[in-house]
Every structure is written in C-alpha cells, then in structure tokens.
UniProtKB/TrEMBL annotation:
Range of residues in the leader sequence: none
Keyword Repeat: no
Organism classification: Bacteria, Pseudomonadati, Pseudomonadota, Gammaproteobacteria, Lysobacterales
UniProt cofactor(s): [4Fe-4S] cluster
InterPro entries reported in the protein's UniProt record: 4Fe4S_Fe-S-bd, 4Fe4S_Fe_S_CS, PSI_iron-sulfur_center, YfhL-like
Name listed for the protein in its UniProt record: 4Fe-4S dicluster domain-containing protein
4Fe-4S ferredoxin-type domain sequence ranges: 1-28
Organism encoding this protein: Dokdonella immobilis
C-alpha cells in the first residue's frame, strides 16, 4: 500500500481518482486505508494518486510492504474478480 505524508496540503485531487476508494480526509491530512490500496494494481499501470498529487507526498508505506502477487490478490478480493 501507499501512504500520504504530512506534506499533504489537503487539496482533495487524489480522493476521486482512486479506483478502490481507499483515500479519505483524515483528522489532519488525507489518509489511505492500507487494506483498500492495491497501489492501483489491477486497475492502472501507475498509482493514480501519485500521478495527480501536486506536492508529491504519496510514498510507499514502509509498514505495508506487498509483492505484486499480494497486490493482485487484494485486487481480486476487493473487486470480486478471480
Ligand atoms: Fe488508490 Fe491507487 Fe493511490 Fe492506492 S495507489 S490509494 S489504489 S489511487
Ligand atoms: Fe494531499 Fe496530495 Fe491528496 Fe492533495 S493530492 S489531498 S496534497 S495527498
């Protein structure tokens, strides 16, 4: 999963582009729910939130390292695809 750092300026452009509705406004800054972020695997070639973030504050979450296979498996669970 990816995570949003405290550089976030709460601009809200990332929330609508997430195919997994993993992004939401948190108490201080926007947040990514790790259980719902596939790093866009299954949907797009590159993470859409990273593409649109104007301050480049979205990084790999060191607390949630995942292999491409794990991300694809998460995508399958989230979408109901097999
Ligand atoms: Fe959503 Fe993709 Fe960003 Fe993860 S990487 S939060 S799935 S837009
Ligand atoms: Fe924060 Fe970047 Fe999302 Fe804007 S696009 S809300 S700065 S994480």
């Amino acid at each position: 999963a990816l995570k949003i750092t405290d550089q976030c300026i709460n601009c809200d452009v990332c929330e609508p582009v997430c195919p997994n509705t993993a992004i939401s406004p948190g108490a201080e800054i926007y947040e990514i729910a790790p259980s719902q972020c596939t790093e866009c695997v299954g949907h797009f070639d590159v993470p859409q939130c990273v593409e649109v973030c104007p301050v480049e504050c979205i990084i790999l979450d060191p607390q949630h390292p995942e292999s491409p296979e794990q991300l694809l498996a998460k995508y399958a669970v989230l979408t109901g695809a097999e």
